[in-house]
């Protein structure tokens, strides 16, 4: 027959397993969201870089289009000036000059726009340099953090399985009554049916025990429960 002291020592082993199980499940439950946060940060940097590069590409495309237009219009101006040498009519000459004037103004505006584009592109290139520097300094850190979490997830899953198996092997050694009480409390509480007493505080609900009861719990020679949360109280020193 199992003594109460033996039951309590088994319960101490069980609550330690429960705490480890809870910690590992908490990490594993939160890990996917933590990875998503890191992936979002990485994606934001990549998107910011791509957006700035897209803006530069758009400016370059507009500049090349304008330069083609300027070239075509300059050729027209040259052609018109050649034509003007062969014009005898004063009226036709004036009309041709107005056309040349219009084309020259158009070329001037387009050349001004090209200069603006070059300035804007230079600003964007400086922005890209800043973003690239940020990526170089931060993206690697985020990727390493993500890798660390993923690798830890694998380790925690393996360790969780080991701890749960160890707990399963301990439970049958409890006396029938205590095993049943623990199982009911575990089902009701979700984390553990046992709680350690640190000082005079129940670590299951963080309620304070009366000094005399706390003293009796620390003796580990009788089954006592927390008056607030109902968990079985045990005492062991934290490593």
Describe the protein.
This protein has 239 residues and is mostly helical. It has a domain of 147 residues: Helix Hairpins (Orthogonal Bundle), CATH 1.10.287. It contains 4 helices and 4 strands. A 4-stranded mixed beta sheet has the order 2-1-4-3, with helices on both faces. A hairpin with a 2-residue loop joins strand 1 and strand 2. Helix 1 packs antiparallel against helix 2.
List the helices and strands and how they pair.
Blueprint: H1 4-84, H2 90-170, H3 176-189, E1 194-198, E2 201-202, H4 211-218, E3 224-225, E4 232-234
Parallel strand pairs: 1-4
Antiparallel strand pairs: 1-2, 3-4
Helix pairs in contact: 1-2
Named at the architecture level, the CATH assignment of the domain at 26-172 is Orthogonal Bundle
Mean pLDDT: 94
Count of individual beta strands? 4
Helix content estimate: over 70%
Q: In CATH, what is the class of the domain at 26-172? A: Mainly Alpha
* Widest sheet, order of strands: 2-1-4-3
Per DSSP, the total helix count is 4
| Broad shape | rod-shaped
Structural class: mainly alpha
Task: Calculate Rg over CA atoms.
Answer: 40 Å
Order of helices and strands: HHHEEHEE
Low-pLDDT stretches? none
């Amino acid at each position: 027959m199992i003594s109460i002291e033996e039951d309590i020592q088994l319960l101490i082993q069980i609550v330690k397993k429960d705490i480890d199980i809870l910690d590992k499940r908490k990490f594993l439950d939160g890990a996917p969201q933590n990875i998503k946060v890191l992936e979002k940060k990485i994606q934001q940097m990549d998107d910011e870089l791509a957006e700035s590069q897209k803006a530069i590409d758009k400016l370059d495309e507009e500049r090349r289009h304008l330069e083609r237009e300027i070239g075509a219009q300059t050729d027209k101006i040259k052609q018109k000036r050649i034509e003007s040498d062969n014009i005898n009519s004063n009226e036709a000459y004036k009309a041709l000059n107005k056309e040349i004037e219009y084309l020259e103004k158009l070329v001037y505006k387009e050349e001004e726009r090209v200069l603006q584009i070059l300035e804007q592109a230079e600003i964007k290139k400086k922005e890209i340099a800043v973003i690239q520097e940020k990526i170089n300094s931060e993206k690697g850190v985020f990727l390493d953090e993500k890798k660390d979490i993923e690798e830890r997830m694998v380790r925690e899953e393996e360790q969780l399985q080991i701890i749960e198996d160890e707990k399963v092997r301990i439970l049958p050694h409890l006396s029938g009554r205590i095993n049943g009480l623990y199982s009911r409390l575990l089902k009701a509480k979700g984390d553990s049916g046992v709680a350690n007493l640190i000082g005079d505080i129940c670590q299951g609900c963080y309620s304070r025990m009366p000094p005399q009861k706390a003293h009796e719990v620390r003796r580990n020679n009788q089954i006592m429960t927390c008056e607030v949360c109902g968990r079985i109280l045990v005492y062991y020193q934290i490593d």
